[in-house]
Amino acid sequence: MANPLLTTALDLANHTGDAWSKNIRGGVLSTLAPSLPDIKVGSTDHFTFTGTPKAELVGEGENKSSQDGTPSKVTAKTYKVQITYRFSHELMWEDEDYQAGIVDGLVANVATALSRALDLLAIHGVNPATGTVSASVSNYFTKAGNGVGQVTATADASADLESAATQLQGAGYVATGIAMDPLYAGALSRVKDTDGRKLYPELGLGFGFTSFEGLQAASSDTVSGRQELAALDVKVKSIVGDFNAFKWGVAREMPLETIEFGDPDGQGDLKRTNEIAIRAESVLGFAIFDGAAFSVIADA
């Protein structure tokens, strides 16, 4: 694979040293769900109480009984993700300001990639780099049989949202947030009543909103996975739920590493190709504590 940052393709001597990157949204789950500070590399077990606690009325002189509800166990598994960039070795000859401009742009891309990786793993169970479902991801929102509510999308987006809310209410949950694919958010933002007034003015044009119908909201194409999962014909439009029932965390985050020797990515020996590699790695973990706390709106 040709390296676009070789000096034959990018004239480092005439380059300003700054970097521009397309504004790609990061993930939604890191915005809507709390993080787990105690997640460990490998797997971490968490007790869960999904039943409704019930107090007992006790009369004068009567015996007291114990609660019948017993906790269950949910395991948060961790997954290592990495991102590696190759650069021409001539980059090392430039001054610190030049290198800082390139590295700043790279770090921004890395942060976005890792944030998106959490969504793609936890929503779709896929390897972000290949867009294919990974057998190593044990549970995710769209996995069949995991108890997550399903709403088949129709031409009436408002009705679909009401169906999702009804599912959650029937399961005894109160929604705290909603994640939307940008195309879905844009379609909702254009829904009008019979007098031509927007039903959801808080969505604006479908960009940059943080709340919807009283819920915390976030939008990213990781909800549908349209960029990474094009070959899978992904149909997810929105996820509504109690995002306290989803926890995530970073078990280990390695600092940005500059690699000057060897073949770290299968693209050839760095010294032979006159390149360096810059790599970032992170170990992410997550768990869905109760699938019934969520409702996924998707095409049939």
Structural overview:
It is a single chain. By secondary structure, the chain is of the alpha+beta class. The chain has helices at residues 29-32, 96-124, 157-170, 182-189, 270-273; strands at residues 43-48, 72-88, 126-127, 132-133, 149-152, 177-180, 211-212, 215-219, 236-241, 246-253, 257-259, 275-288, 294-298. It has a single domain (12-49, 72-298), classed as phage-related protein like fold, CATH 3.90.1690. The longest helix has 29 residues, at 96-124. The strands form three sheets. The protein has a six-stranded mixed sheet with strand order 5-13-9-6-8-7. The protein is built from five helices and 13 strands.
Protein traits:
disordered N terminus; phage-related protein like fold; 5-stranded antiparallel sheet; 5 helices; alpha+beta; 6-stranded mixed sheet; single chain; 26% strand; 300 residues
How many separate helices? 5
**What percent of residues adopt helix (DSSP H or I)?**
10-25%
Shape, per Cα inertia axes? globular
| CATH top-level class | Alpha Beta
The strand line-up of the biggest sheet is 5-13-9-6-8-7
Structural class: alpha+beta
CATH architecture assignment: Alpha-Beta Complex
Radius of gyration: 23 Å
Low-confidence segments, given as residue ranges, are 1-21
How would you state the average pLDDT, rounded? 81
The topology string of helices and strands comes to HEEHEEEHEHEEEEEHEE
Please outline the major beta sheet: 6 strands, mixed
Terminus-to-terminus distance: 38 Å
- In total, the number of domains comes to 1
Portion of residues in beta strands equals: 25-35%
Give the strand tally: 13
